[in-house]
Amino acid sequence: MKIDRLIAIVMMMLEQEVISAGALAEKLEVSRRTIYRDIDALTMAGLPIYTAQGVAGGVGLMKSYKIDKRLFTPKDVQTLAVGLEGYRQLFGRSHTTHVTEKLRGIGAIDRPEREGAFAVDLTLPEGNRLLRSLFGVIEAAINGARYLAFAYIDKDGKTSSRQVEAYLVVFKERSWYLQAYCPDRGDYRIFKLARMRGLRLLAETFIPRRFEPLPMDGAFMNRATVAVTVRLSLSVMDRVVERFGEQNIVSMEGDSCVAVYPIVDGEAGYDTLLRFGAKCEVLGPPDVRAKFVAYMRTILGKYEAEDA
Questions:
Q1: Does the fold of domain 129-220 match that of domain 2-107?
Q2: H helical segments located in 165-285
């Protein structure tokens, strides 16, 4: 929004003596022509903006206009900026740049040269970045209480037509999900955005329900899990620690460890174990080990048939 951009420009001029139009355009992701129009608008609004010529030239605010007043400490600003940067990486919303600049302008007057000790890198792969193109349609559906329609491919590869009431978009474990109410099923459902096809915003509206965010702890898949005991190479032990915690490491044995790794008891769970490759051996329960071996033989059979 233009008002957010204007405020961001003021905050950056409060923080710096002089800043060039090119730097403003780059930070705010607009053209220089837009920046020049914004500067004109701010000048007409009565802000004492001056222009400095030369190589290090640009625009700035008269020193008499600047107030040495902080609402946040530099550490506060740093913490908020890290969170906003993570949000920007996930959702691709450029307006967070404006918010960040407001915070820096308010609270970074005596900011130390060294930046914070923590950074967040939530850079998405190309596919997930492209899925963000659906956000505009979903956001319009949520804000306008309008139905969404799409074809959905479930975990078994079956396609169904859905018309839902959208309530919340969630990013979890590298995937985007939509939490919505499905009138045909008479209940709330979680849909993976990558499984949607032909997403459409309908003109028909609905009366929003008293929605409570659905848990995303695996139970939403409506599939039972089983605690599998595995022997893993120490090189992949970190995956267990990151997902379940160190308490799931049962013992250490030389260059390997024994761990408990809960999975969905089915192909989805076996696929999870296959990500460890040859660095994983399923020890038990015996029936899970047998089914996992049978699953791997099915995969191997596809290649053996071709080579025969």
A1: no
A2: 237-244, 267-274
